[in-house]
Each structure stands twice: as C-alpha cells, then as structure tokens.
Amino acid sequence: MSPLRRFLLLALFGLHAWAASPAAARPVVAQAEGVRLSVTAGFDGFYRGEAWIPVTIAAANDGPDVVGRLQVTAPSAGRSPVRFETPLSLPNRSAKQVMTFVFPPRLVDRLTVTLLDERGRELAQAESNVLRRLETGALLYGVLSPEPDALAFLDSVTAGRPEAAVAYLASSDMPTVPAAWGPLDILVFNGNATGDLGPDQIAALAAWVEAGGQLVVTGGPSWQVTTSSVADWLPVSVSGVRSVPDLPGFAAAIGAPFRDPGPYLLADATLRQGEVLFFDEGAPLLARVERGQGAVYFLSLDPRLAPLADWRGSDTVWEAVATRVPTRPIWSQGIRDVYAAISAVESLPELALPSPALLLLFLLLYVVTIGPVNYLVLKRRGRLELAWFTIPALIVGFTGLAYLLGFGLKGNTTILNQMSVVSGEVGVELGRSQTLIGLYSPRRGRFDLELPISALARPLSRDNGELSGDGRQGVVERNGSLVVREIGVDVSDVATVVADSIAPLPAVTGEAVLMFTGGAAEVSFMLRNDGTETLQTGSLIVGNDVFGIGDLEAGETWRHTVALSGSGGSSRAVPGPIATFGGIPPLSPHYPVLLGSALYYEDRELYARWQLLQALEDRSGAGTSGLSVGSATFVAWTREPQLTMALDGGAPRQSATTLYMLDLPLTQAAASTADQTVPQALWSWRVLASSGVFDVVPTDLRLFDGWVEFEFEPWPTFQTMSVTELGVRLEPKDGTSTLPQARLWDWQEEAWESVPVSDWGVTLVPAFAPFVGPRNAVRLRLSSGPAPVVLSAAFPVLRGRSIDSP
C-alpha cells in the first residue's frame, strides 16, 4: 500500500471515530427553543473603571424546562477571563429576572451573557446595552421618575467636576448589594413609588447613604408615593399638599424670576432635623439631614411642575446638592497599586525565610560533615575508598533534611489571610471596606472560597493590574452565598482575591476644632474609644501633617492640641514617633508615624502593613493631594476580620489585619480678629500640566529640565477669607542652592506672570489681587533652568481675615 493511500485510510478512520464519539467529548451548541434573554448593564449604561457593574438579566422560557446557570464573562488582559455565574431554574412558561455583578476591565463596551445547561452546553446568549465609561471625577446622577427627561438638565450641573451624567433608572435597576451602589453620587426619587423597592434594596440604599451617598426625595402632589419607604429618613415631616400663589423669597434667593406664574403646589413640610437650604415664608423648600457620611434631602416642590420646570434657576437649586457630594480621599478609592497589595497579603510570618545565621549554620554543618568529618572517619577505619558512597549518601541525606526543615518552617496548614482597608467617619455605623484575601497552601490543590452574599469578590492578578483569572481561578458564583470556585494554589503558594463590602465601623466618637492663636493655626482633638477592642498605633492626619498618638485602649479618651505646619507658629508634636521624608502624599511621607516604627523592613507584620499603605497610593504621579478635605482623619490598626470566610475541603487557620481610616469633621472656633495665614497643611492641590517631572508633588519636587503647573485651593474655611497678602514659599531640599523660575496665573488676563524670586523662603507678591481666583485658589508654575531644582516645599502663602471678623 502506498504511503498516500495509508494516510487517507488513517484520516478516514480518525474522522469516523470522532463522529461516533459521545457528544460531551466535543463542543456542542444546543440552542434551546423558546428561551429568550435580555440584558441591561450598568446604571443606564454608565460605569466607572474601578467599580462594579450591576447586570440585570431577564429570562423567559416557552419551551421545555431549563436548569442551568447564567454566565457573564469579563474580558481580561490576563491569561484567562473571569466568569461571573449565577444558577437559574426556568420551568416552561415562566419568566425570571436575575441581577448579578461584574467587575470590568478598564475599557469595555458591552457584556455578553450566556445561559448554559447542567452539562455546560450553551442554550442562549445575549449582549447587553452599550456601556459608557465615566471620566475620573465625574458626577453621576441616578433618576427614578415617570418623566425622567424633566431632569435631563442635571448633566450640566457639574459642581466643578469634569463632567456630569444622568442615568434614568427603574426600581428593578437598584442593586441588592450595598457595595454595588458605588458609582452613583446622587439618587433622585421623583414621583416614583419607593414602595416598589424590596427589603434588600432598601437595606442596600440605606447602607449606600450611610457610606456617603446623597439621596434626594421630591414632594409636590405625589409626595406620598415618593416618600412611602423612606419617610423616616427625611429631614421634614409632611402633612399634605398646599397651594401657594407665589414664592417671591425663593426666587429672590436664587436671583432668577419664575418663568411660569403661580399658584404652585408644594408638600406642606415642617423641619424636624437637619438644616434648611432654601425656604419661603418659613416653609422649607429644600432641607437636608446628614445620615452617616451621606445625606438625605427633601425638595418640597416637584421638579416636573412649575415653578421648577424649565426654570433657569433650577441649576442653582441642584448645585446646592451637588457641591455637597463628598470628595472621596485616596484611601477610600480602593487598591491602586496591585503589586504592593499582593505583596501585603503574601507577607505571612509562616512564609518568612530562615534567618541568615540559621542558613550559615546549616551550610557550615554540611561542609564540615561532607569534608573533614567524613574524611577523618573513613581514614580512621582505613576505608577511604568508601568515599565514593558516603559523599553521595551525605548529599542525599542533607537534601532530605533541608526539605524536611523547609516543610516544617512552611507549616502543614492552609492559611486564609485577610487585610482590609475600612474608610468612614467617626461616630458613624457603616463605612466602605475592601478586603485582600490571601489563600496559602503548603501543597498543590484547588479550593472553593465562600464569602457573605453581601460582598462582591474577584480574583486579583499581577497581570498589569487588570482583572484576570491568572490561569488558576476564574469562576465567581452567587447563589445564597458568594463562592470563588476552583482556586488553584501551587506548593507553598498564595492565591489572591479582593472583596468589596459595606462594613461596621468601630465605636469611636470625637471632635476636631481649628483655632488661631497669635495668627498660628492649631487643632484641638478629642477621641474616645467606646468599643471593646484596642485601636493600635493610632495617628491623626490633618491635611499634609500627621501626628502619632499610640494605642487607643477600649474606654480611653485622648485629648491634645497640635500646631499645623506653615501657619506662622512653632510645631508641637503629640506623643509618638514622628519622622517624615519625601514621597507621594498623603501617606508615604509619614510611614514611620502611621506604622509606629521606622524599622518596618525588619518586622514581618509591619512590612505587610507598609505594603498595604503603599497599595492605597497611585504612584503613577496622577497629581492630586488625595486628602479628606475639611476633615482630620483618625488612622488605627486592629487584628479584627471584616469578612466571614469558609474554605471547602478544610478548616484553615485564619489571620486578619484591618486598617481604619475614619474622618473627623473639622470645625472652626470663633473667628479671630487678627489676620490668619492658611496653614500649608490645609491646601488641596492638583496638577494642571507638567513635562519632564516624575512624582509631581509640591512636598518633594524634582525638576530636571522640566516644569509643572499646580492649582492650589485652601480648605473651605478659608475660601471666603478677605485676602490681605499673597506670597510664594519655596524651600530647598538637601541644601540645594538652585532656585526655580516661578510664575503665577493672572485670573483676569488668563496668562502666566513671572514672580521675582531671589531667595529661598517666602517671596511676597505686590499687587496680588489678579492672582487670587475663585474660592481663593492660586495657580503656580515652576520650571528649572540649566541646573536641576530639588524642592522640599512649593506652596502659596495666603494671609487675610475672615469675613465674619470686625
């Protein structure tokens, strides 16, 4: 038989065997008849790059019963995609709606949902609506209204943000998991029945507000329908509807006459808590009450009706809400540095290498035994020829001993290590939590990790910081609980998962008061630990200043007064380690204070905590101060877990570390009659543009043939100050004598003007008025000349008097 005929016969035989093989042995698409899927993703299609996307799937079946699972595959830059699954039972002539959650890569335009049967065969598939990624810092309104177009103008109410978007929502779009509400900034209930929300949705809504969300409930003729499920949250009591001929005080306060004449219908409300932002003849028109870090507003008028409908003054009303949306500090925005995050959760004491002394002793014993000892023993017995056997035997023996010692050091126990960052406010019950979970196994295996259903979890990979299955884990299932399935762990390896949730905060109360004494700014603190656990290594962040306070024991109260840097007074440090060095603010210059020691490289636990702090900062030089503006921040550590976890196939040993970052609102004492200098610590800043500069920060600035443009804005308490003096403070680092070229922005001429800087320190600016902008903002441009410039500080110096002072 010729080679060609032999090849053809073998090919035909192989084809026949493949055709006769079971269906399960090759891919099969069994498109089910009568099954229909419809997919809606995002908040009306909007999503943020670092936040979860809610995915609502409507499934209907007119055919045979179906039992399977819905699968959403998130595109991944890594080695394997991540699949988010939820089981689905769909009998004949039935319809169901399921909500699941997907963490997207940085850019995604659609999501694909597949219905699989119990054997993994595809029954149906559908694509979602088009997704639109919001710009960083954008404002997102959610509107539930029978006539949502009436509030379409909100996309022009940006409150100084880069952009604003309006998502038109239905009650069914509201997530049941609190952490999934993160992308929304403001939620408006207008004429929509809040009674349509389920108990889980109401609970998630309450947690979202507590963690910083802004809820606006409108009145008018339909106030009862709109307030039915949230009446107890409102700042007002509503007794009915009344008609008024006009609202002249309201129109005068806004500065815009009404387009449509009265009469107008408004909810008859009486303030019971909170504050009134707009009123007319004593009737609250827009009232606000704080609820945790967030707030609930009640607007007595219906924005779909006169006088608000198509009124140019409506922007001002909504601006009052939008400007109060809190700017989240960098530590509440989640993990920024994936490599540091994974290093933190992998830094287990059990995985520490043996000490150099122990390794040296082992090597010395090995060399002495295999050399002199072996030789002397064989020589004494007169059997030197046995060295051909004893040397290999000793090598094998020491190799086995090294293996046993290494195995003993690594342990024989699976470990679940969780490291959490919880941000919130002192005196508030709930805050945002992100938990890194490290699964360590001494031997190769696959595990199912079970988490609370109220959490959202995903694998974390080092692959460019993107979402990735990492080739070892890739299925996240929601079914009564949250399970990350089939996590593959190699020998003495750590697999990493990250989970987002809303968590209870420690019972801490306190206050912070800003005072001026002789022109210098001081902050008086009071903190009390009303809980049962010790808050370890406590510290306080006030702008760019950090003060260590040590442990705050259960039941302990701590009081102290500190002077802020750059305010004209001498700095008085509180007890505790104080050491600073250059780096990206607001955390990295203060690691020794935040960790309680500068020797964190030498301590395994402190090293992990240091890595966790690093993971919170964007080290790409994004160029913002990243502070909690208007608040001090209490920082403390505990070993309390934030999530209840279980591992299929064993009872692992569990360890936990929690970093609390709790804002403490900063109030101001009675205004001083003397001029005040804005403390350097209380400037917020952002980078407008730069060239040839790495790590663009005003506290450690290095210019090597480059330039940078900053915009500085003082904290709100100084934004209405009557300015009497403006200067530029430039301080050298490491004794450098090269001055930069400095310019200030002329807000009137919209141009940069040179500042004659002749020496280090403060250079006063004559005729400064054109260089002070809205909210007393100042823009500063610095550039290097032929020689490099290294600065330890580059800030405006603003001096003036409070408008409340005589």
Question: Care to describe what's here?
Answer:
By secondary structure, this protein is of the alpha+beta class. Helices cover 16% and strands 39% of the residues. It has 10 helices and 43 strands. The strands form 8 sheets. Strands 19, 20, 22, 25, 26, 27, 28, 29, 30, 31 and 33 form an 11-stranded mixed β-sheet that branches. Strands 8-7-4-5-23-24-21-32 form an 8-stranded mixed β-sheet, with no helix packed on it. A hairpin with a 2-residue loop joins strand 16 and strand 17. Helix 7 runs antiparallel to helix 8. The radius of gyration is 32 Å and the shape is globular.
Brief descriptors of the model:
16% helix; alpha+beta; 8-stranded mixed β-sheet; 10 helices; single chain; globular
Task: Describe this structure in a few short sentences.
The chain has 806 residues and is α+β, with helices and mostly antiparallel strands. Helix content is 16%, strand content 39%. The strands form 8 sheets. Strands 19, 20, 22, 25, 26, 27, 28, 29, 30, 31 and 33 form an 11-stranded mixed sheet that branches.
Low-confidence stretches: 3-30, 464-471, 569-583
The end-to-end distance, rounded to whole angstroms, is: 113 Å
The coarse overall form would be globular
Estimated radius of gyration = 32 Å
Secondary structure tally, helices: 10
The total of beta strands comes to 43
Q: What fraction of the residues are assigned to beta strands by DSSP?
A: 35-45%
| Assembly classification | single chain
| Helix share bin | 10-25%
